[in-house]
Structures are given as structure tokens and as C-alpha cells.
Amino acid sequence: MNKxxxxxxxxxxxxxxxxxxxxxxxxxxIDDEIxxxxxxxKKIQAMAKKIRAKASGLNFMLLDQDWINKxxxxxxxxxxxxxxxxxxxxxxxxxxxxxxxxxxxxKAVLSLYQELGSLVRDYTHGxxxxxxxxxxxxxxxxxxxxxxxxxxxxxxDIEAINCSSxxxxxxxxxxxxxxxxxxxxxxxxxxLEYKYDEQLCLTPVDFDSLExxxxxxxxxxxxxLETVRDLCRSICTENKERVRxxxxxxxx
Length: 252
Fold this sequence. Notes:
Strand content: under 5%
Order of helices and strands: HHHEEHHHHHH
Structural class: mainly alpha
Largest sheet: 2 strands, antiparallel
Radius of gyration: 30 Å
Distance between the termini: 90 Å
Helix content: 55-70%
Number of strands: 2
Shape: elongated
């Protein structure tokens, strides 16, 4: 091997190494991001279970499906997921106290409604908490909106990588760098075509595959809270004994 051949091979090796590092480095970064995204999604799924449990408790307080449907319809959420959540009482939290059955019932329903609204808000937008290790710094908790934005950002990066660093192009480039090998292949008519794109191109993140529920936020204007109170009064007036039984159940 003469000096020129030696330098050419050395340059080719350097170029190949740089191309490989760039190609696989970008893929590794994306793979790591997707793995972290899925880990955060699991935390969101745990929050969704709490939302469903709280909604179930609220629906339990509403006595039956007719009142459940009326309640959510009056709040503009009749077509949402909330009316379909089965009413069951699994909570052990203490209910607000009041002198009368109506007062206790109204406060209990309002309390559950507000707690549910807070859970949904945190689930959808997150909330700021103290950083676990950096004093004075705040971080936002995992939430549906941030994860959706993050998935969209990852997909934009994937599209850019698939367009600028196509596997077919990278593999063909590495073959072309080996001039002597290519020359021999062409002489015997064994040039190769590369079809790596279908197998090696990065696949966009399917956000739906994360199985994250989307819960509509609860309205909290003064008029909405008054609607809740009105409904509680109506329920209690028409079903006093059933309301008493429900309150006894939730306080036991």
C-alpha cells in the first residue's frame, strides 16, 4: 500500500466513523426520549385512576343514573366521560359536617366536585412543585398537555432525521467509501441496491398508543357552583331517606 492509499483509507475511516456516530447518535437520542416519554405516561395513567375513583365517588353521591345524567348535563358535560363512570364508594375521607341532612349532602357533593376538578386540572396542565434536589427551583408535574406537546416535538425530530439521514443513504455512502470494493463489484456485475429505509427509519410516536385518557375540565364559575347547590337541593327534597342512607354510608 503506498502513502496515498494509506491516507485515503485513513480519511475514509474517519469519515465513516463520523457518519456512523451522527446517524446512530441521533437515533439513540430519540430512543432515549421516547423511553422517558413512556415512563412519564405511566405516571399520568396512575393519575387517571385517581380521577376515575373520585368521579365514581361523586356519582355514588348522586344516587342513580338519572340524577347522574341530569347533574353532568346541567354543567355542560352530559356528553363527556363522567356520566358513564359507575358510582361506587371506596373512599375513606371524612365528609364535611353540617347541622341538617341537606347541608351535609350539599357540602359533601361540592367537596367531591372541587376535589375532582383539582385532580383533572393537575392531570391536564400539571402543577409546580419544589425541585427534589435543587433548592428554590420549581418543576411542573407530568401532565397530559405537556406529554402531547412533547410527543409532537419528538415526531418533528423523527421526520427531520428520516429526511436528512435516511438509512439507505447512509449505508450506500459507507459502500461508496470503499472504492476498491465497489470497483470489483461493478466489474462482476454485482452492484447492490439498498432498501434499509423500511426497516431502519424511525417510527413516529403514536400518542394514542400511550393510552392516556382525556378528561374535560370541570367548570368552576359562581353560576356553576350554584347549579351544583340547586341540584343537591332538588335531590335531597325528592329523596331524603336515600340521601340519608348515602351520607351514612360515606361516614362509616
